[in-house]
Amino acid sequence: MSLNVFITGASSGIGAALANEFATRGACLGLVARRRDALDAVEAALPGKHHTYVADVTDREALIGTARAFDAAVGGTDIVIANAGISIGVKTEFHEDLEQFARVMDTNVLGMAATFHPFIAGMKARRRGTLVGIASVAGVRGLPGSDAYCASKAAAIVYCESLRVEMAKHGIKVVTIAPGFIRTSLTRKNPYQMPFLMDADAFAQRAADAIVAGVRYRTIPWQMGGVSSLLKLMPRWLFDRLMSNRKQKPRAGDA
Fold this sequence. Notes:
It is a single chain. The protein is an alpha/beta fold. It has one domain: NAD(P)-binding Rossmann-like Domain (Rossmann fold), CATH 3.40.50. It is built from nine helices and nine strands. It has helices at residues 13-24, 36-44, 60-74, 95-126, 147-168, 185-188, 200-213, 222-233, 236-243; strands at 4-8, 28-33, 51-54, 79-82, 130-134, 173-179, 182-183, 198-199, 217-220. The strands form two sheets. A seven-stranded parallel beta sheet has the order 3-2-1-4-5-6-9, sandwiched between helices. A two-stranded parallel sheet has the order 7-8. The N and C termini lie far apart (49 Å).
């Protein structure tokens, strides 16, 4: 049976790789992104016929409208992947960074909820469907200079957990995917070492397998799962010492 899959942030990086992976598996896609030119380029390279929508996940009404349009066009959505996200260095000490903080939270957390919202009623009526939140291992512990990003991904992890328990009684699965370092435009400017760096296409294949299987939580690559487990258990004094001199992600105003 062909799957109907809705993906936000589909014009590049992880979103584009997931679009290619699911299209190759025969899915009909609803692809959402802010840039029409990049979105059209992704769609043109995919096998099959798909639906594209230009929208920003922070524009809730526009996003809900596109979600409902896709759901009606395909007769019900099987998988919703809330992938849209931004990553930028944010430091609370700078007044100008407070606006960036709000932007990151609005996109990475509230945008995820707005992506899921319009599909839940239909999934409850059908008693099936899968909601997928793309989180990050950065949500496990707070990293210096990444105040907003780490906070947003920690919130995404806990949000998806809350939703997973709530939706289970309705036959709806909620899957949390926590990428490690994936080779995309978001990681290209990182000034620090990125252990177990993985190509986006390889990530997408493993993520799609986990999504179709309906796993609750999956870290990709698996090696970063071990790293995140160690970070969770690490005493605060040791974590603070190890991270005190870590290089930091550039802020919006940095060259």
